[in-house]
Design a protein that fits this description.
The chain is mainly beta and 264 residues long. The chain folds into two domains: 6-146, Sandwich (Immunoglobulin-like); 171-263, Cystine Knot Cytokines, subunit B (Ribbon). The protein is 11% helix and 47% strand. The strands form five sheets. It has a five-stranded antiparallel β-sheet. The longest helix has 9 residues, at 96-104. The protein is elongated.
């Protein structure tokens, strides 16, 4: 995603999707924007603590004459406190229809403009852009895709346990990973995800995928520690992140989630 060009005095936000992503069907999509007060307006006295903030999301396209035109896709009012406006607050806006239409008839970019304004026009509000102090506050779109090829019933292999389980054998345990705790602020979304992990003992022929595993355990050659509990199947997650040029990239990262465990 890059921010450039203007439309009627507003900066346009351009989102780009890879051809592989565009081949899928959109289940739902949400635009995330960070709204905050830019500066206090002079000669305006504010006594209340709650404000109604109006948001508009428009898609910028070309009309039949080749000129830029905007189409309104979302308009809503949000209650925000003065504290929210001072420090800023993330707002999630449903843009499923807009993104789904773009996927059906894609162009080079999905260009949008966002308007934010308090209902009585007393505050100067804004949405951070590429030249802001914190690029982590730039708008981004979360897209859930529907892949019909993945609707087949999966055959589950291995066991699932919880931290309170008394199971000693090889098992899959839940593990939530928070990227912010690692200082990985270049990852926009998700901020955390369920990674899971494998742990436990591997007794005789338990969850062993190959006969070779058991034979090696019996032969006990020098340097062999016997079968160990390890991931049997991994899956990917979709992520939004900044590259070295501060472009927002949407990608699928393989091998991020443990789906099942076994002995090998």
């Amino acid at each position: 995603m890059r921010r450039h060009n203007n439309f009627k005095g507003l900066k346009m936000i351009n989102f780009r999707f890879t051809n592989k992503v565009l081949q899928n069907e959109v289940a739902e999509a949400f635009l995330n924007i960070h709204i905050q007060e830019l500066e206090a307006r002079h000669n305006v006295t504010l006594t209340e603590d709650q404000f109604n903030v109006n948001t508009q999301v428009n898609r910028v396209t070309r009309n039949s004459q080749g000129n830029k035109a905007s189409v309104l896709y979302s308009e809503r009012s949000i209650k925000m406190s003065r504290k929210d406006l001072k420090v800023g607050r993330w707002v999630k806006i449903n843009v499923t229809t807009m993104v789904a239409e773009f996927f059906r008839l894609p162009r080079e970019n999905l260009a949008i403009v966002v308007r934010v304004q308090d209902s009585k026009n007393r505050l100067s509000l804004g949405v951070p852009h590429l030249n802001s102090e914190s690029n982590a506050l730039m708008p981004y779109i979360e897209v859930s895709l529907r892949d019909n090829s993945h609707k087949r019933t999966r055959r589950m292999i291995g066991m699932d346990c919880t931290e309170n389980s008394k199971e000693a054998r090889c098992c899959r345990y839940p593990l939530s990973v928070n990227f912010e705790e690692f200082g990985w602020d270049w990852i926009i979304a998700p901020k955390q995800y369920d990674a899971n992990y494998c742990s436990g003992e591997c007794p005789y022929s338990f969850l062993q995928k190959y006969p070779h595993t058991h034979l090696v355990h019996l032969a006990a050659p020098q340097g062999s520690g016997g079968p160990c509990c390890a991931p049997r199947k991994m899956s990917s997650i979709s992520m939004l992140y900044f590259d070295h040029d501060l472009n927002i990239i949407y990608g699928t990262i393989p091998g991020m989630v443990v789906e099942s465990c076994g002995c090998s």
